[in-house]
Design brief:
Blueprint: H1 3-31, E1 33-34, H2 39-58, H3 63-77, E2 81-82, H4 85-104, H5 112-136, H6 147-167, H7 171-175, H8 178-255, H9 258-273, H10 284-299, E3 304-309, H11 318-336, E4 346-353, E5 356-364, E6 370-371, E7 377-378, H12 384-387, H13 389-400, E8 404-410, E9 413-420
Parallel strand pairs: 3-4
Antiparallel strand pairs: 1-2, 4-5, 5-9, 6-7, 8-9
Length: 436
């Protein structure tokens, strides 16, 4: 091969490198949220990646070292995207396996022209595979999987990459280069099917989670309906009997029976105070959730107090407020249920101001609060996979709404503060009745 042919091959290789930046960013941005908001910064980031990849290509270093460094670059790019570390690492290995296997699956080229054509065809194949993957996947990058699936997602691309790297030095495969294409094609199909399988599993988990949330919301509404019905019936009874009760009390007062009169008045007022603890802000969603959790807290003799200053009508997403209030109050009730927790109470404060909803929930705690390496609160229960998802769901939901979340715990007081922005009030339209 002439020196000019080698020069043109390297030149065209470098010319196709920017396509890798486009493919990687396209895949990452569909699975995660990019932390880099300004386009100029994003262009700078991938220009640095291009420069590093080109430098590795031109450096006289062993192939296995170059391979590991290229994997490291792709993994480092994931830190500019918001998501779980597990998902980001698995996504990096998957997209690198697609890139490598798409290159190797091309038939062997025995001329510079064939090599250059293979360069462009491999990039086209990479983009098509990434495009199909992102079109099919709807839940990849979110949720939690069992350890078996995590192992498959991590080791299958890694074994594929290392396997292809080792086969390049195998004399049998060097003698029959067509086997490279067949082996790479098989590994490409396996990795792609595994990708789709994990996404389907996540879709099923997401559907179950939504179904459970919907059932919980329905329970809130049914509970609110029953409480409202009970209040209306009690109100109707009081209105119906109020005049008769007053007539009877007037007669007893005239006869001079004072103690019994006081008893009757206390009984009457007690019936009215019985419903004083019921939340009736006028917002059906919030009232339903708070009343439902208040009843749960009362079963464990936990005082539950409200301080609400919110309008009855707000453009508030039902799922969002259900996840936030439901999980936060569940955690508060769990903390107050502890036998060692003598000072039991749950305080809920909600304030609406300048199209923002402020939420503060406080409760005492007695158990030790542990945190993981990221500083996140870790569950102290045996089944961490189940009990550790409450705060994660709250955090994810608040982040999806571009809100603020602050969790503090000091002097045996656990406090969760949340701010949701751009919550507009809904104007209640006056209904015009038709005239007959």
């Amino acid at each position: 091969m002439e020196l000019s042919d080698v020069f043109y091959e390297e030149l065209f290789y470098l010319a196709t490198l920017p396509f890798l930046s486009v493919i990687i960013h396209y895949f990452y941005s569909h699975c995660f949220v990019c932390r880099v908001e300004r386009k100029i910064h994003l262009y700078t980031l991938y220009s640095i990646y291009f420069a590093c990849s080109a430098a590795l290509r031109l450096c006289p270093i062993p192939g296995i070292v170059m391979l590991m460094l290229n994997i490291g670059l792709v993994v480092l790019l994931t830190f500019f995207y918001r998501g779980s570390l597990k998902w980001r690492v698995c996504a990096a290995f998957f997209v690198f396996a697609l890139i490598l296997l798409s290159d190797v699956v091309m038939p062997a080229a025995y001329s510079s022209k064939g090599y250059i054509i293979n360069l462009f065809l491999s990039k086209l194949l990479m983009f098509m595979l990434v495009l199909i993957s992102t079109r099919i996947a709807t839940s990849y990058g979110e949720g939690s999987l069992s350890s078996w699936y995590w192992g498959l997602l991590f080791f299958c691309p890694l074994i594929s990459i290392m396997g292809i790297a080792l086969l390049t030095s195998n004399m049998f495969f060097r003698t029959y280069p067509v086997l490279f294409s067949i082996t790479s094609g098989g590994l490409l199909i396996i990795n792609f099917l595994l990708f789709v399988l994990c996404d389907r599993v996540l879709c099923v988990q997401s559907a179950k989670s939504k179904s459970q949330l919907l059932e919980q919301q329905n329970a809130y509404y049914v509970n609110q309906y029953l409480m409202t019905k009970e209040m209306q019936e009690e109100s109707f009874k009081s209105q119906h009997d109020f005049k008769n009760i007053l007539v009877g009390l007037r007669a007893k007062l005239q006869s001079g029976v004072e103690k019994k009169d006081l008893y009757e008045l206390d009984k009457l007022l007690g019936g009215m105070e019985h419903l004083a603890g019921v939340c009736h802000s006028g917002n059906i969603i919030i009232d339903s959730i708070l009343n439902y959790k208040r009843q749960t807290a009362e079963k464990y003799h936990i005082p539950f107090t409200f301080d609400l200053n919110i309008p009855p009508q707000m453009e508030l997403d039902t799922t969002t407020i259900s996840v936030i209030l439901g999980n936060t109050l569940d955690n508060a009730i769990e903390a107050c249920k502890e036998k060692e927790n003598i000072e039991r109470y749950i305080k809920v404060h909600m304030q609406y101001l300048n199209e923002s909803l402020f939420i503060r929930i406080q409760n005492p705690y007695v158990h030790e609060i542990r945190t993981n390496m990221k500083g996140e609160i870790a569950s102290t229960k045996s089944n961490k996979q189940v009990h550790g998802i409450g705060l994660k769901n709250i955090k994810r939901t608040v982040e999806d709404c571009n809100g603020l979340l602050d969790i503090s715990y000091d002097n045996s007081l656990f406090q969760v503060e949340i701010v949701l922005f751009n919550i507009e009030r809904v104007a209640v339209a006056q209904q015009v009745l038709p005239s007959f």
